[in-house]
Amino acid sequence: MKAQLIRRYGKNEKVIINEVAMPIVGDNDVLVAIKAASVNPVDFKTRNGMTKGIMKIAFPMTMGNDFAGEVTAVGAQVTQFKLGDRVYGRPRTTRTGTYAEYIAVNEAELALMPTNLSFEEAASIPLVGLTSYQALTEQLNIQAGDKLFIPSGAGGVGTIAIQIAHLLGARVATTASEKSMATLAPFNPEVVIDYRKQDFSEVLHDYDAIYDTRGGDDLVKSVKILAPHKAVATVAGMPDRKWAQAAKLPLSKQLMIGAMSRKATQAAKKAQAEYKFFFMRPSGEQLAQLTTWLEAGKIVPVIDRVFDFADAQAALDYVEAGHAHGKVIIKIN
Ligand SMILES: NC(=O)c1ccc[n+]([C@@H]2O[C@H](COP(=O)([O-])OP(=O)(O)OC[C@H]3O[C@@H](n4cnc5c(N)ncnc54)[C@H](OP(=O)(O)O)[C@@H]3O)[C@@H](O)[C@H]2O)c1
């Protein structure tokens, strides 16, 4: 089968199409002919070597972390899926590689894709949808009426996160530039701050929660907008020592990771806020919940551009430039 892969770490490393072996289908696995994959910042962050310390990679590595496609084979123990089912998913990090014609996925990491969506639309959901669902329900425990700040509302994460937050009853503030306002308009956040004209940290006060999608200096200053004893859940900042301990990393790595996130964790401490770094995890069950919402039209996919399989590098470059509106998709077959 064909796959878009990288041979080594490096910012200048380009994806190339190559023939690779078909995936091995275990007893609990489903073999999927991938029709579309989405591009996520983790794709180029991994290529750039940013996950080196916490994730082992074997090269050549097929790129890509989520997909939609059609079931072409099932393992002996599979109970939930059959040939021809249209499915989508985000496989576990040791079995990624969705810029490819086929993938074998444990059935617990799959769900039937919404019947009202195209493969391209469905592929836009798994990684950002699951991350946002987990951030808002498990990490931040968002309740109706909560004032929630989600920066970069027009991005891949932001567009789905705002919709899920509204379903949970939150009042959302976000940031975007002038050219992103049209993307945000249908979702009608309570507050939209043009980050090129105003500093959100001087406008927002007494927030109940932050779902941080920016990291860096934006994360550090964002904690000031929280009321005391609230939390920031970050998917873009650095992991902290607590996360490294829970991941059972060696003490030397725990200390190194603790040092890397110190600026943000200290800012959080000063603001009497809890700092929660997390990596999303695959879940077919939670994806099925998203399917229900998508089929009911309670949330909708937001697609910026669709690239051909041969143009995967251009798709990556487009997302890496940092101004996608919604999701960028690679059409595979
Ligand atoms: N830990 C995890 O499990 C996990 C899971 C998912 C995502 N993530 C991380 O979450 C982050 C966001 O991902 P994403 O897919 O949403 O990225 P994305 O789609 O590439 O984000 C693009 C958006 O960022 C906005 N933006 C750019 N500069 C900005 C600024 N200075 N202030 C506010 N907004 C700005 C852009 O709006 P304009 O065009 O208007 O500038 C654009 O809409 C990434 O770092 C990603 O790695 C982590």
Task: Write structural notes for this entry.
With 333 residues, the chain is α/β, with parallel strands linked by helices. It has two domains: 2-124 and 301-331, Medium-chain alcohol dehydrogenases, catalytic domain (Quinone Oxidoreductase, Chain A, domain 1, Alpha-Beta Complex); 128-277, Rossmann fold. It is 30% helix and 26% strand. The protein contains twelve helices and 16 strands. The chain has helices at 41-47, 119-123, 126-139, 156-167, 181-184, 200-203, 216-222, 241-246, 251-260, 262-270, 284-295, 312-320; strands at 2-6, 16-19, 29-39, 61-62, 67-74, 86-89, 102-106, 110-112, 147-150, 171-176, 191-194, 207-212, 226-234, 274-277, 303-308, 327-331. Strands 3, 5, 6, 7, 8, 15 and 16 form a seven-stranded mixed beta sheet that branches. Helix 5 links the parallel strand 10 and strand 11 (191-194). Helix 3 (126-139) packs across helix 4. The radius of gyration is 19 Å and the shape is globular. It starts with a strand and ends with a strand. The structure holds NADP nicotinamide-adenine-dinucleotide phosphate. NADP nicotinamide-adenine-dinucleotide phosphate binds next to helix 1, helix 3, helix 4 and strand 10.
